[in-house]
Amino acid sequence: MAKEDEEKKKIRVEESVPTEYLPEDLIVDILSRLPVKFLLIFRCVCKLWYVLINDPVFIKMHISRSLVSNSNLGIIFRNLVRNNFIFGEVRVSELHNYSSDELEQQTVIELNHPFKLPHYLGFLGLVLGSCNGLPCLCSFFYNAKKEILLWNPSTRRNQKVPSIPEEYPKFDYNVYGFGHEPTTDYYTIVRIVKLSGALDSVVAVYSLSTNSWKRIENMPFYLTSPHLPHFPPVLANSALHWFADREPRPNSASSEFIASFDLQDEEYRELPLPDSDFVKNNVDMNLGVLGGQLCVLCSFLRIRVEVWLMKEYGVRDSWEKQFSIEQLWLMRTLCHLRPICYS
After folding, report:
1. What is the DSSP string of 231-300?
2. Residue 188 phi/psi, 5° resolution?
3. Are the C-beta atoms of residues 180 and 187 closer than 8 Å to each other?
4. Which among 338, 340, 334 has a CA at the least distance from the CA of 302?
5. Is 194 helix (H, G, I), strand (E, B) or coil?
6. Which of 210, 250, 288, 296 is the most exposed place for a label (fewest CB within 10 A)?
7. DSSP letters of 1-68?
8. pLDDT, tens digit, 9 for 90 and up, residues 113-148
């Protein structure tokens, strides 16, 4: 009897297994809409799914859909006291419903970043930039050279960037930028050093595809973005952006234009600021990206913030004032204000 019951049970199990499978294109479509945390789990389902989820074409599709739909958004915070990073998810539809207390209660995850190891106890690092969910980290050690890593918090993998070939003893600023060029699918790190007493800045470019640095033509601009080098440049339209002047102006607190570095053709360009007296006379400005478009944030005595959007990239007349936000009395400084998304 026991054997007969076991065989009946086996038959019922076999009958419960579907005889037909979902088409592969439908599986791809479903998986490409899921958060990364689920994809990492689903890689263990079968070999087919493992290969699919790790395929570069699938990864591009997943990133593209996440950017278009404003889904799968997250924010990585740096805790300066504990020298760690924490991650929290963002639900666009619920952002306006959060109070400050509710935000503090949101579930966050501590990330074991690659610099959080015993031999990195002297770590004083920066986030040089982030794109497609990949932060670029730079370490500063006491009496030691810098180290740069490309880090994937989802897979916990990282790649060390080769040492920079040239170091300079005296400079006005030493800044980095990190970006991705979708046409070539290249990830690039840009290093800009403004040497003391020189008008131009020395520029070196690292490409992940070749895993090497190269020198390019000097940058003819003087970067004036506030809080250099602690806040990275803005990546939009496959270019990195800073506030800049044509030459140093010690007695001026404003900027003349926006300098850009195109990651595809490696060319420098000048972009105009919005044609507004509020913008021109404002000393507290910040760059950002909204909906994939370059934007400028301007603050007036921490009472009002205007957000200007460049609707057509590179065209002066395409600047439009998108928002005017009043009573930001709890904002200490504009450098801590970052646009995330809007819907």
Report:
1. SPPEEETTEEEEEEESS--TT--S-SEEEEEETTT--EEEEPPPS-HHHHT-S-EEEEEETTEEEEEEEE
2. -135, 140
3. yes
4. 334
5. strand
6. 250
7. -HHHHHHHHHHHHHHHS-SSPPPHHHHHHHHTTS-HHHHHHHTTT-HHHHHHHT-HHHHHHHHHHHHH
8. 666 554 444 455 677 888 887 888 887 654 456 788
